[in-house]
Amino acid sequence: MNYQQLRNRTVIITGSILAAMFVVQLFIVFLPKTDAQKPVDVVVVLAPQTYRLHAGVDLIDAGYSDRLAISAPLIEYPGWLCAQDASVEIERPVTIVCFEPVPSTTQGEALSFAEVAEAHGWESAAVVTDRSHLNRTRMYFETCTSGIEYSFIMAERDRSVLGRVFSFFYETFAWYKAGAIGLCN
């Protein structure tokens, strides 16, 4: 085999591996496994954009829980959300617990929620987040916490093509970051 043939094979093999990784990542980001809704001790809304919060409140209103935990990084969501969000109406009496994830990442949300859950004696939780974020959220919560039974619920939102492309690359690099620095550090 000469140099040209070796180089062509290397390019083909490398390209095939990269293409396979791309396809797998598409499935991880855009076709996550969601769980059936069921009664839980608490509904947890991560980094609560309004559509996520509404999805969590819908679970509360449907009777799946009477407790709502909101991950509210104070840098991004300064107090307004946990004090009162006028755009969200909850039809049932509900206990709202807000917590600040440390660090302000998905990993921090998992670790900080575990502390809050332990303090309140919660043993089950429905975690609400985006389609593109769901599998990575599942990985952190199931790997970095113990003693809590989770279900993972997808909050849908309309995204432009550019928004979906951004989500794909953001989540792809976030997965690589998790692999590089470790899951529960």
What does this structure look like?
- This is YdcF family protein.
- Keywords: Membrane, Transmembrane, Transmembrane helix.
- The chain crosses the membrane at residues 12-31.
- The protein is of the alpha/beta class.
- It has one domain (32-176): Rossmann fold.
- 49% of the residues lie in helices and 15% in strands.
- It contains six helices and five strands; from the N terminus they run αβαβαβαβαβα.
- It has a five-stranded parallel sheet, with helices on both faces.
- Helix 1 packs across helix 6 (161-181) and helix 4 (106-120) crosses helix 5.
- The longest helix has 28 residues, at 3-30.
- The chain is elongated.
- The model has no long low-confidence stretch (mean pLDDT 83).
Largest sheet, described in full?
5 strands, parallel
| Unreliably modeled segments | none
Q: Which CATH architecture?
A: 3-Layer(aba) Sandwich
Shape annotation? elongated
- Output the radius of gyration: 19 Å
Give the % helix: 40-55%
- Please give the number of β-strands: 5
Sequence of strands across the biggest β-sheet: 3-2-1-4-5
Q: Distance N terminus to C terminus?
A: 47 Å
CATH third-tier fold name: Rossmann fold
Residue-averaged pLDDT: 83
Share of residues in strands: 15-25%
Under the CATH scheme, which class? Alpha Beta
Q: How would you spell out the order of helices and strands?
A: HEHEHEHEHEH
Instruction: Count up the domains.
Output: 1
Class from secondary-structure proportions? alpha/beta
Total count of helical runs of at least 4 residues: 6
